[in-house]
Amino acid sequence: MDEEQFSAFFAAQFPDVWRFARRRTESGSDADDIAAETFAVAWRRRDDIPAQDARLWLFGVARNVLANHTRQDRRRDRLHLRLVSTDPPPSAYEQNAPSQEALWPALAALDTHDRELLLLRAWDGLGIGEIAALLGIDRATVSSRLHRARLKLDRLLQTRLGRAPAAGDASTTGDASARGDASATDERRRYA
């Protein structure tokens, strides 16, 4: 297959491969990456593309590319969690309060999406609208997910600090000040 034939093949098959990837990824940009990598493999292996079932062959390549990306993401997430849970950042000039010491393992225990929302808000200082634009979702969805992530983090922190929240406890509603716990209130403000 020469360059001109491959260009025609690409133009004819790209939309289907992109849609195939999009149904299996979180965003359009992820689908772009998968489709681009699929066609890069197809270009390198253009002599192996079967005359019959070329589309099916491309879907097989796309599945392999997706599997590779998933494995890379999992390895990266595991490494990140291992780093965060075993080596919290050192305090340069002050001793960490117990609630801060419990924060890193609690963040590591959250699922990837909840942790990402909290970090975008707290560390990157993004507003709800900015997070919504970045993730390509509605502001109300971001607000709702962020609220749930904060509640989960609070429950994990309370458990790690030996203060298991009871049903109806202020920690399940996210109101640390109702407990009179100044350190938890400060911690929540810091990560809100």
UniProtKB/TrEMBL annotation:
<keyword id="KW-0238">DNA-binding</keyword>
<dbReference type="InterPro" id="IPR014284">
    <property type="entry name" value="RNA_pol_sigma-70_dom"/>
</dbReference>
<dbReference type="InterPro" id="IPR007627">
    <property type="entry name" value="RNA_pol_sigma70_r2"/>
</dbReference>
<dbReference type="Pfam" id="PF04542">
    <property type="entry name" value="Sigma70_r2"/>
</dbReference>
<dbReference type="Pfam" id="PF08281">
    <property type="entry name" value="Sigma70_r4_2"/>
</dbReference>
<comment type="similarity">
    <text>Belongs to the sigma-70 factor family. ECF subfamily.</text>
</comment>
<feature type="domain" description="RNA polymerase sigma factor 70 region 4 type 2">
    <location>
        <begin position="102"/>
        <end position="153"/>
    </location>
</feature>
<keyword id="KW-0805">Transcription regulation</keyword>
<keyword id="KW-0804">Transcription</keyword>
<feature type="domain" description="RNA polymerase sigma-70 region 2">
    <location>
        <begin position="15"/>
        <end position="76"/>
    </location>
</feature>
<dbReference type="InterPro" id="IPR013325">
    <property type="entry name" value="RNA_pol_sigma_r2"/>
</dbReference>
<dbReference type="InterPro" id="IPR036388">
    <property type="entry name" value="WH-like_DNA-bd_sf"/>
</dbReference>
<dbReference type="InterPro" id="IPR039425">
    <property type="entry name" value="RNA_pol_sigma-70-like"/>
</dbReference>
<keyword id="KW-0731">Sigma factor</keyword>
<feature type="region of interest" description="Disordered">
    <location>
        <begin position="163"/>
        <end position="192"/>
    </location>
</feature>
<protein>
    <submittedName>
        <fullName>RNA polymerase sigma-70 factor (ECF subfamily)</fullName>
    </submittedName>
</protein>
<dbReference type="InterPro" id="IPR013249">
    <property type="entry name" value="RNA_pol_sigma70_r4_t2"/>
</dbReference>
<dbReference type="InterPro" id="IPR013324">
    <property type="entry name" value="RNA_pol_sigma_r3/r4-like"/>
</dbReference>
